[in-house]
Structure formats: C-alpha cells, structure tokens
Amino acid sequence: MSEVIVRERYLKNGKKVYEYCFELAHEGGKRRRRTKSGFATKREARAAGRQALYEYENVGEVVVDNNISYSDFLDFWIENDCKNTCKEQTIKGYEKKIKLYIKPELGAYRIKSINKDNLQAFITDLYNDGFSVNTVTSIKGLLTKSFNFAVDRNYIPASPAVNLVIPKNKQPDRPTRFKQHIFLEKDQVDKIFERFPKGTSSFIPLKIAYHTGMRPGEVFGLIWDDIDFVNKTITVNRQVQWYAGKRTEEEKKRTNGTSESNGYWYFCEPKYKSYRTIDIDDTLLDILKEEYEKQQRACEYYDEYYSHYYSDFKVTDEILRRNTVFPQNRIGETCTEHEVNFVCRREDGSYVSSRTMQHVSRIVHMQLGITDYDTYSLRHTHGTMLVEQGADIIYVQRRLGHKNVKVTLEIYTNHVTKTIKSRNSELLNTMY
Fold first, then answer.
1. Cα–Cα distance between 265 and 83 in angstroms, integer?
2. Cα separation of 126 and 136, whole Å?
3. Spatial separation of the C-alpha atoms in residues 180 and 380, rounded to whole Å
4. What kind of fold does domain 186-360 have according to CATH?
5. How far apart are the C-alpha atoms of 157 and 252, rounded to whole Å?
6. Distances in whole angstroms, Cα of residue 165 to Cα of each of 28, 50, 142, 148, 290
7. Is the full-model pTM beyond 0.85?
8. What is the distance between the alpha carbons of residues 98 and 341, in angstroms, rounded to a whole number?
9. How far apart are CA 212 and CA 107, in angstroms?
10. Rounded Cα gap, residues 423 and 258, in angstroms
11. Who has greater pLDDT, 313 or 354?
C-alpha cells in the first residue's frame, strides 16, 4: 500500500496550508499521484489522505458510518436495494412491518451493536405475543435481508441474523393472532347476490371470485383475451394493483386538501408467480358470454363516449414470465397500441376496480349481518366447496394458485363443513 505524505504549501496571499499526496498505480509506465491541499493542519491533511487512500485501494469503495442507527439503515436499505428489486406492493408490506414491529424494538440501536441474541429474543417475543408463524417468518426474512445488505455494503463484517429460530415445540404465551377466513353457507351466498344482482357493478367480480376462487387482484386484472369460451377456461396472467403516487405541496394546495391522487392502476405478476389456466363451469361461462356481448353493444352505443384503457406494453407477453422482476405495467386512458379490454367494467366502459369490494364488505357486514366476511371469503368458500365434493387436493392447489400443496392442506383440510361431516359419517358407517 502507498504511503500518505503530508507537506506544507503556501497560497498566493502567503497563507500556509497542508497538502496530502500518495502514489497511484503506474499507467503507461508513468508514475501518477493524487494530491489535495487546503487543509489547515497536518492532522486534517493526514486523516483526509488516509481516507482517500483507503477508498482508492478498495476500488472506490466508500467507507460507511457504522455508527448509523438500524432505523436509518432500514430506510437506506429500502431506498437503495428494495426499490431496485421489489414490486411496489412488496415494498409497502416491508415498510408497514418495519414501522409497526422492527423500528419500535430495534431501530434506536446502532447497527454495529445488534447481535444474534438481540434478534433471537425479538423473534421469540413476537411468537410469544401471539403473532402468527407467517407474520414472524416474514419479519425474520426482513431482518435477514437487511443485515445481508449491511454486510454487502460494509456496515458490519458479518450478519447477526443467521439461523434465527421460530419456536415450534412450545405454545406461545398468548393465543396466536389469526384471522380466520370464513366459509359462506348457501343461504349467505344467496343473500349476497340478492343484494348485488345482475346489472350492479359488483355482480361480475363477485361471481368470478365465487366460481373460480381467484384472488381479488387477479379478478380485477382479467381482460377478455384471458377468457376462452370454446375450451371453457380462464388464464391467470396478471393481477392489478394501485400505486399511490405522492403529491407535492403545490398539488395538495391546488386540490384544497381533497383526495385527488397522482396514483394509478398497474398490472404485475400474480402472487407467487402463480400463472395458471383454470376450468370454468357452465353457469359462469353463460354469465361471462352475456357480459361480453353486453359490453360489445354498449361500446357501439356510447361510441366516442365509451371509456377505453391502455397499458404500456402487451399484457400477455410470455417474456414477462421469465423476468426476475416483473416490470410495472401502467394502465391509463392515454392511447397506446395496447388496449386493455377489462372484464370488470360498467355500462359506459369505465373500469370497476377492486375498491368496490370495500363497499361490498360494508354492506355485507351492516345490512346482511355477516360480520366476518372479507374480500377473500368467496375464494375460501370456493376452495372449501371443492374439498367438500372430493376434489383432489393437488387440483385445488393449482386452481387457487397456492405456492405449494402444504398451504392448501393447512387451510382447507381443517375446515369441517356440514357436507364434509355428513359424507364422512356415511363413510364411517360403511366401514363396519
């Protein structure tokens, strides 16, 4: 390693300053040096010289401040790593868990001071406090990823978040927090469709969810190209999500504090990249055929006043499936060569978004009295009905787009409906 040399220099006005200098690698057989002057003392010049030499010897690597708090580092990680590799919805989920759970407990500590014992105690406390294993697992993943990034950027020499353990052989101190998706009985489903009949904006998305078990984002991301009327299938190629754009102070002032937003809808890959083609029953097929023909007639009737939507690129491109990070495919009314023919839309062509499901939930809670209903209730009901009828569990898993069959087994084999109980009671009697 080169040596830092400090020497005196005099400015034109006679003032004495100090300069550091060190040798660089030879280039073309010629010697090169790096110098910088203007320091008031030898100590300042030498310290700056050593810093510059260290950065040079480490190929321009910047020496970081390892006294940074874990809270500030997490902000740095989100900005410089996650926003380059993760989807918008994923980042929002990260930020929520960081804000609610990680920063309050660990954020104030210097990142270099946090050790494995601190992190293991944090994970164990979450488990004992009744958080679900899924929630604890996701928080553990955030610790692992953020500390790996800290090692990569030289904030710490090694990650303390290695081999953290979620307790499995002991009961938590408090009951596990778990929101149980409910199974809707036939009379409850009938009530929902009596309240949201054919012709209402919620009818089509509710019917699709009930007859296919698709996730809400997948339902509202459907376009007519995804429906194969001949082979009676739906292909799940994407989901739709909302990007909440940030407004400047000037924009907030202009809108006088109203909810006008810079946000927009966009297509992204299905959850867990669960691309799939699923069968549809004759009842849903007839409903969709009727809806398609209705939209064709409405488009002709409204003519130039019919709403049209477009995306940045073709939404069914096979290349999207091979990308590590699915590019955000913005949807808008500015004309491009890629028109989006949504399945869920009103008579005038305007898009029926997933926000309508918030209105549905309120009505179902307050008017119909089904207080545990949420947007996943119809998906859960569909999956349970398949199990009731004896469908193979691998068929249910692939139809619902679960990451693996274990998830399907955990959710649907633990729900004993009247039909399942009756069928198995008959089976029990035939055994003897």
1. 18
2. 7
3. 10
4. hpI Integrase; Chain A (1.10.443)
5. 45
6. 56, 42, 14, 17, 54
7. no
8. 38
9. 43
10. 56
11. 354
Query: Which residues contact residue 232 at a Cβ distance below 8 angstroms, ignoring those fewer than 6 apart?
Result: 279, 280, 282, 285
Give the integer Cα–Cα distance in Å for 238 and 24. 53
pLDDT at residue 160 greater than cutoff 60: yes
Is residue 31 within 8 Å of residue 73, measured between CB atoms?
no
What six digits make up the tokens of 283? 């009842």
Span 237-281, pLDDT tens digits: 899 988 876 666 676 566 555 555 678 898 888 888 899 999 999
**DSSP for 20-55?**
EEEEEEEETTEEEEEEEEEESSHHHHHHHHHHHHHH
Type of residue numbered 414: N
Closest to 380 (Cα-Cα) out of 185, 106, 170, 141: 185
User: Nearest-CA neighbor of 408 among 386, 428, 429?
Assistant: 386
Model pLDDT, residue 302: 94
Tell me the average pLDDT across 409-431: 68
Retrieve residue 309's tokens.
Answer: 């939507």
- The one-letter code for the residue type at 196 is F
Count the residues in the chain. Answer: 432
Contact 150, 104 (CB under 8 A): no
pLDDT digits (tens, 9 = 90+) for 283-326: 999 999 999 999 999 999 999 999 999 998 875 555 555 555 56
Give CA–CA dist 42/35, Å, rounded: 14
Helices 418-431 and 377-388, axial angle in degrees (round to 10):
20
Whole-angstrom distance, CA of residue 362 vs CA of residue 370: 10
Rg (CA), the chain: 30
How many CA atoms does the CB half-sphere of 418 hold within 13 Å?
3
Within 10 angstroms of residue 117's Cβ, the number of other Cβ atoms is 9
Distance separating alpha carbons of residues 189 and 198, to the nearest angstrom: 14
**What would the CATH number be for the domain defined by 70-152?**
1.10.150.130
The C-alpha atoms of residue 264 and residue 334 are separated, in whole angstroms, by 12
Give the alpha-carbon dihedral of 389, 394, 396, 400, to 10 degrees: 180
Provide the 8-state DSSP code for 157. Answer: S
- Nearest Cα neighbor of 46 from 20, 22, 8, 23 is 20
Structure-token match 């984002």, residue found:
217
